[in-house]
Amino acid sequence: MVVLALAQPARAGQPPASRDEAPPVADDAIEPVPIRAPAPRPTSGALHVESTAHGARLVAESLDDDTGGPSTVELGPLPVHASLPAGRWRLRTESAGYQPWSLDVTIVAGEPLTLEVEPELIEDAWLELRAANEASEGAEVSLDGELLCGLPCRERVEPGKHRVAVRKRRHKPLDFPLRMNQADEVTLDVRLQPSTSRAPAVLTGALGLTTLVAGVTFTTLGVQAQRSLAADLDGFGQYDRDDPRFENGRRDLNVGIAMWGATAGLTALTLYYLLHQPGEASRADKRRRNLAVQLDGVAPLVSPLGSGLGVGLGARLRF
């Protein structure tokens, strides 16, 4: 292309323009047009996971080595709306109330992926026992008469009615009924109290044993005196009212009867000291929630003991 330039004559009083000086630019010159760079191509895609299992946490594990990000991403509780780098991912749920679930998906850059996840409920329930004080640690927990675990512990149990017993030497025991529903999580904070001293029971028991032996001895002596008198009578023997066997036998029988009465009283007192535990009783603070029952926008609450409900109010019970 050839560009023609018209030279303008020099005005009077102005020196001629030199060759190095740029020619004047006309006022109507064409302005440069800005060039816009193309938008960068997307490197991630949107993931939408819908589910009625509110609260179950979703985790994504990368199956590619070139995603440029972390290999494991915590996506949070369901439902989830997140963005993931393009590539292959393995989605899995983590929840104590649901069975394990996983699915391999491919995230395409710039394209959304919508899934509906419905993990299945666990068939059992969770029972967690914690030691609320140092004295409760190491206590044995029995379920329906069979040893379950030692405090503290967390075990899966079958739904239904159960009998829980907590025992520890020299501590007041706990024994109470417990109903478990499917996918329940029951937490018991156990606080055992020291048992009452057995010294009074040992003392009364020893005295009761002594009076028992004395009662048997004196009763035997009195019966022997009666039999001796009866034998003389059968043999046509002679004796009178002044025979010492009359007085000795009557005295021994009376003492024996008194000893038997004392033995009965001491036995009752011994049982009272053994079974009665004065002072503060052992107790367990209980919280119940159903891992599968949640309302939209409402966190799961704690239900009272024995109510059988998934949601409700908190409770503190003393056994």
Automatic annotation (TrEMBL):
This is PEGA domain-containing protein. The chain crosses the membrane at residues 201-223, 255-275, 295-315. Residues 137-195 form the PEGA domain. It comes from the Bacteria. InterPro entries: PEGA (IPR013229). It holds the Pfam family PEGA. Keywords: Membrane, Transmembrane, Transmembrane helix.
